[in-house]
Design a protein that fits this description.
single chain; mainly alpha; MetI-like fold; 15 helices; about 70% helix; disordered C terminus
C-alpha cells in the first residue's frame, strides 16, 4: 500500500479536527437541553443551565406527562401530517422530476423554467392567507398543514439531476417489453433512485415535523394543534404553561413561581425532538450514499 504523503496527512487531520469541532457544537446544545430537563428548577434559577445536572429530578417530565392526552393528541397530529405529507410530497416531486428529466419530452425546458420562476417571487403573506382561508377553505383543517409544503422546487431539481444519471436503456428496455410510463416509474426508476429518495425523504420529514408556522396561522382548534405549535406556545406563552400545569394539578389554580417552568420547557422539547432523532439511524446508509452517489464521475 502506498504511504500517504505529508500533505494528505495534514489535510485529513485538519478535516477530522474541523468535523469534530462542528460535531461538538451540534451536540452541546442538545446535551444542555437534556441536562436542563433533568435539573431541579431552583438549581436552574441559581446557577443557570449546565451540561451536567447537579440535582437530578424527573419533576418536569412528571408534570409534562401528568395529563398525557394533550401531548399524545399533538403527537398524533404531527405524526399523521409528517407521514402523509412526506409520502405525498416525495412521490409528487419524483413524478414531476421523472417527466422533466426525459430528454425526448419537448416541453421539459419550459416546465423547468416555470418551476424555477416560482422560486424567485411570491405574492406575499396577505394574499396567500386569503387564498388558503377564503378560497380553499382549509382553515382548521389538517390539509392546511400538508398542502402548502407539498412541493419543493429545489428537491425536485435534485431529483431531476439524479435521474439524468440513470441509464436510459433501463426504461427503454421496459417500454419495449410493453411497460407503460407509470410501470417504468414505479418499478424501475423509484428502486434505482432509492438513495436519493431516502435523502429527500429525511429532509421533507424534518420540515413537516418541525413546522409550527402553518399551524400558528391557520389552526385555532386545540385538537388540531401539532406538537411543535404546542412547544412554541409553551416556550413563548405563560398562559399555555399555566394551562398545562392546571391540567396536571387537577384544574386547581397554579402558582407558576413554585412550578418547574424552565425545566418543563426543556422536557417538552426533548419529548418533541426525541422520535425524529430515532429516524436517522435507519436511513443513514441511504442518506450518505445519496449525498455522494454521482459526485465523482469516472
Amino acid at each position: 500500500m502506498r504511504k500517504p504523503t505529508s500533505d494528505i496527512v495534514i489535510f485529513n487531520t485538519l478535516s477530522y479536527l474541523l468535523l469534530g469541532v462542528f460535531a461538538v457544537l451540534c451536540v452541546v446544545p442538545f446535551l444542555m437541553v437534556l441536562s436542563s430537563s433533568l435539573t431541579d428548577e431552583q438549581e436552574i434559577v441559581r446557577n443557570g443551565y449546565t451540561l451536567i445536572p447537579k440535582s437530578l429530578t424527573f419533576e418536569a417530565y412528571k408534570v409534562a406527562l401528568q395529563d398525557p392526552l394533550v401531548i399524545l393528541r399533538a403527537y398524533g397530529v404531527t405524526i399523521f401530517v409528517t407521514v402523509v405529507g412526506t409520502l405525498a410530497s416525495v412521490y409528487l416531486m419524483s413524478m414531476t422530476a421523472y417527466v422533466i428529466h426525459k430528454r425526448n419530452f419537448r416541453p421539459a425546458n419550459g416546465l423547468s423554467f416555470y418551476f424555477f420562476f416560482t422560486t424567485l417571487f411570491n405574492a406575499g403573506l396577505v394574499p396567500w392567507y386569503i387564498l388558503i382561508t377564503k378560497y380553499l377553505n382549509m382553515k382548521d383543517n389538517l390539509l392546511v398543514l400538508i398542502v402548502p409544503a407539498l412541493f419543493n422546487v429545489f428537491y425536485m431539481i435534485v431529483m431531476k439531476a439524479f435521474m439524468r444519471g440513470v441509464p436510459e436503456a433501463l426504461s427503454e428496455s421496459a417500454v419495449i417489453d410493453g411497460a407503460n410510463e407509470f410501470r417504468v416509474f414505479n418499478s424501475i426508476m423509484l428502486p434505482v433512485c432509492k438513495p436519493m429518495l431516502a435523502t429527500i425523504t429525511l429532509f421533507v420529514a424534518l420540515s413537516y415535523w418541525n413546522d409550527w408556522y402553518l399551524s400558528m396561522l391557520f389552526i385555532s382548534e386545540e385538537k388540531l394543534r401539532p406538537l411543535q405549535l404546542l412547544l412554541y406556545n409553551l416556550v413563548t406563552n405563560s398562559d399555555e404553561l399555566r394551562r398545562i400545569m392546571q391540567l396536571s394539578g387537577g384544574g386547581a389554580s397554579v402558582d407558576l413561581s413554585s412550578m418547574p417552568q424552565n425545566s418543563l420547557k426543556m422536557a417538552v422539547t426533548m419529548i418533541a425532538t426525541g422520535p425524529i432523532l430515532l429516524l436517522y439511524p435507519f436511513i443513514q446508509r441511504f442518506f450518505v450514499k445519496g449525498l455522494t452517489l454521482g459526485a465523482v464521475k469516472g
